[in-house]
Specification:
The chain has 2 domains: about 100 residues, Beta-Lactamase (2-Layer Sandwich), CATH 3.30.450.90; about 240 residues, 3-Layer(aba) Sandwich (Rossmann fold), CATH 3.40.50.300. The chain has 14 helices and 13 strands. The longest helix has 15 residues. The chain is globular and about 60 Å long. The C terminus is likely disordered.
Length: about 400
């Protein structure tokens, strides 16, 4: 990450204004606004942090802001837990996922921009195979990646694709609700923890009695959440969720790690039949500086993948299975995705190398060194949109 930029020395600094700060973040196409006592408001644009030309935030500024944007329930939750998550709308500016916490005994805020309009899979330049994945009749579809990799945006695009192509009942359980969906072909009910249901666990226990065809679970947090997701998938529902993992292999390993050794055979068998796909994301800066594009690893649960998950005697061999399925099933690795962006001139060689899974192999392939039997960097037909004018919002 680049060094934190500061306002120019000697420049006249405007007094702190939350609306001006959040407006500047949106105008700069930033993803986050950070407020902390003793520092000017700070925005994240294309992954880098920049301080706004405002006076350092004072304790009373953030106390007043909390009183303005928090409900009594949120105030009570924060008093008990010292942190709270919720979403707010700022008239004429946008909608934002909000976290309030304490640091060094003072309040601090993190705001994440949520676009009003849900973009399509193609507008986000995600692999087009995600359109097929989104229309699966059943199965668990996981979107994974580190914080700020675009998981929520991609998940919203997939739900939007279902909404526009299937007459189904969609139930979402979110904490908090981020993207707002309007009914198209589907009937969508969005439930927010705290407002529409008392707890995440309580909503999960009752969701199968609400006649869902498609279920969105904001995040797989624990074994109970995963249990519900797998059982719903195995009984004929399409379930979407997220994990904070870096690739498909780690995603499967993380799910298996929720269970003790004596349950491994059972959970491997269930996961091998219930899993639909794993999509892992990394956002890479564009060469022209106009935002970022998604590098995506896509794993489809084929018969070979299911057998590898189910077999206790074999270690996970996901990268090779992705390579084997790149043509027939349109699976792809991170390095294949990065190679395509690099060949199009959308990202630089340095960025591609930095974000690649195997930098030494990527460097060889970029230099044209490869064996006839190596399909790791095979071309991926129809894997991403051809027009690259839109920025990707994390």
């Amino acid at each position: 990450m680049a060094d934190l930029e500061s306002p120019e020395a000697g420049a006249a600094l405007a007094p702190f204004s939350f609306k001006q700060a959040i407006s500047q973040m949106v105008q700069r196409n930033g993803s986050d606004l950070l407020l902390k006592v003793g520092r000017p408001p700070t925005v994240r644009v294309n992954g880098d942090l920049t301080s706004l030309s405002m006076q350092p935030v004072r304790p009373e500024d953030l106390k007043q802001l909390a009183e303005q944007i928090m409900t009594p329930r949120q105030v009570k939750e924060f008093a008990e837990k010292k942190e709270a998550d919720f979403a707010i709308g700022v008239p004429g500016v946008g909608r934002f996922r909000t976290n309030i916490y304490q640091q060094r005994g003072t309040l601090a805020f993190a705001f994440r921009a949520i676009p009003y309009e849900v973009k399509s899979i193609r507008e986000l330049h995600l692999p087009e195979v995600l359109e097929t994945v989104a229309l699966r009749p059943r199965g668990l579809v996981l979107v994974t990646g580190i914080t700020g990799s675009g998981k929520s945006t991609a998940l919203a695009a997939m739900i939007n694709h279902v909404n526009r192509h299937r007459r189904v009942n969609i139930i979402t359980i979110e904490d908090p609700i981020e993207f707002l969906h309007r009914d198209a072909m589907a009937n969508i009910s969005q439930r927010e923890v705290g407002s529409d249901t008392l707890t995440f666990a309580n909503a999960l226990r009752h969701v199968l009695r609400q006649d869902p065809d498609v279920i969105l679970i904001g995040e797989v947090r624990d074994a109970e959440t995963l249990d519900t997701a797998l059982k719903a998938s195995d009984t004929g529902h399409l379930v979407f969720s997220t994990l904070h993992t870096t690739d498909a292999t780690q995603s499967i390993s993380r799910m298996l790690s929720f269970y003790p050794p004596h349950q491994q055979a059972e959970i491997r068998s269930l996961l091998s039949t219930a899993l639909g796909a794993v999509i892992c994301l990394r956002l890479v800066p564009r060469a022209d500086g106009r935002g970022r594009v998604p590098a995506a690893e896509v794993l489809i649960n084929t018969a070979a993948v299911a057998e590898n998950i189910r077999n206790l005697e074999k270690s996970l061999n996901i990268p090779d299975l992705i390579a084997d399925g790149s043509v027939a099933y349109r699976m792809q690795s991170f390095d294949q995705s990065l190679m395509q962006w690099y060949k199009k001139g959308t990202i630089t060689y340095e960025s591609a190398l930095f974000f690649s899974t195997n930098p030494s192999e990527f460097a060889l392939r970029a230099a044209g060194v490869s064996s006839a039997s190596d399909r790791t960097f095979a071309e991926l037909p129809g894997s991403m949109g051809s027009e690259l004018g839109m920025d990707y919002q994390a």
